Amino acid sequence: MATQLIEPARVRKLTDAAPRPGDYVLYWMQASQRAEHNPALEYAARQANELKLPLLVGFGLTDDYPGANLRHYRFMLEGLAEVEASLARRGIGFTLRHDDPDRTALALAEDAAAVVVDRGYLRLQKQWRQTVAESLKGECAFTQVEGDVVVPVELASDKREYAARTIRPKILKHRDRFLVELKPTPLDRDAGGLSIPDGLDLSDVPALCDSLTLDRSVGPVSQFFEGGTTAAKTRLRSLLDGGFRNYSAHRNQPQTDDLSYLSMALHFGQISPVEAVLMTLERFPEGENTEDFLEEAIVRRELTHNYVHYTPRDYDSYSALPDWARTTLAEHSGDEREHVYTREELENAATHDDYWNAAMREMKHTGYMHNYMRMYWGKKILEWTNTPEYGNRITREINDKYFLDGRDPNSYANVNWVYGLHDRPWTERPVFGKTRYMNANGLRRKCDIDGYVEKVDRLVERAEG
């Protein structure tokens, strides 16, 4: 496959201004938290060389990102510690500021000749970029560079897509020309001479977490999943070296471990989806396993980015469901439920269903859950809560609280999938209406569900030991 710098479709000018005199080019890192295969970083490096300036990377760290807790911060900061070390080896400066991301960007932009930022799809991320763009308008070049999907969202489609089957041909039309290796750009000017006030110290991540005012209700899970690019690539290589030949057969077998475990690294931008796919294609250029992996890594994931981008007002709400789903759920909202549980009972895995309880325990103790069990987990919350609106809300809140990859386009879309998003009407049933139904008998037919429960028991024992 070809090697090129940055595809023009990834680049968007957020101001009309030209570069100005300054001490450095600033890359405001936010979504793409990595020093490898990062189009925004390489675009900024190229611009720094053109302007004969060093490159500075700045990251704004706020204690109160909505829905985030100690589990999320620990994983993210482990990744940023690796970023700082990797950038230093390339002669690129890095500063971690204890401030809102947009305020950090504007403070560092005061001495910048030009500013580059990566792409964010959620409301708050878009708001930060808009705030900075409005402040820099007419004063400083400000460029956004997409690096966290394979095919840029607007290029793939100009509207919210109905399902994977509608977006798939649009993505496949462009996919291969975006699967290109991105080499690091050597920097002509070293950032060692820059006079930048000291930022937060990443040399001791646990100590840094202790110094922050964080929600500590959910603890870190570093014994299962370490943050950072190296750890993410190690997890992927483990799959490619081991169980990838069983990937298609085991995708819906939760008792197995033939998975990439990349979702949390993709959430924080610690690995490029392009690089992950290229690593896979290098080892397994064709076959059913490869096609299924690319379907999950590109089509299914980028369908969720399409969803949040074209549903900006309420992608994280029940109101974003398709009309047919809200109608059928409303018609069955008053149906009698055999079991009804409180949120506390659900979080404590205190239901009558040992399979569901195992899934909840996996989530709480590891920050992850096998994707097949995520579907069952969500469907049962719909069934076991008083109203679909309430079930939808607490499904999303529990999801975001415990999963390392929560608060993400995938999370918002997948929670709403439980309630009919990106799906079609099925046979009508009590409580579910025409939304898709799942039950314990289906688990027993399709997988070794008791083997999954035993696997979770071992994971919990490890977590508590």
From TrEMBL:
Pfam families: DNA_photolyase (PF00875). It catalyses: cyclobutadipyrimidine (in DNA) = 2 pyrimidine residues (in DNA). It comes from the Bacteria. It comes from Alienimonas californiensis. Residues 23-153 form the Photolyase/cryptochrome alpha/beta domain. SUPFAM superfamilies: Cryptochrome/photolyase FAD-binding domain (SSF48173), Cryptochrome/photolyase, N-terminal domain (SSF52425). Belongs to the DNA photolyase class-2 family. Its cofactor is FAD; (6R)-5,10-methylene-5,6,7,8-tetrahydrofolate. GO terms for biological process: photoreactive repair. InterPro entries: Crypto/Photolyase_FAD-like_sf, Crypto/Photolyase_N_sf, DNA_photolyase_N, Photolyase_Class-2, Rossmann-like_a/b/a_fold. The keyword Lyase applies. Its EC number is 4.1.99.3. The lineage of its organism: Bacteria, Pseudomonadati, Planctomycetota, Planctomycetia, Planctomycetales. The gene is phr. This is Deoxyribodipyrimidine photo-lyase. GO terms for molecular function: deoxyribodipyrimidine photo-lyase activity; DNA binding. Keywords: DNA damage, DNA repair, DNA-binding, FAD, Flavoprotein, Lyase. The keyword Ribosomal protein does not apply. It is an enzyme of class 4 (lyase).
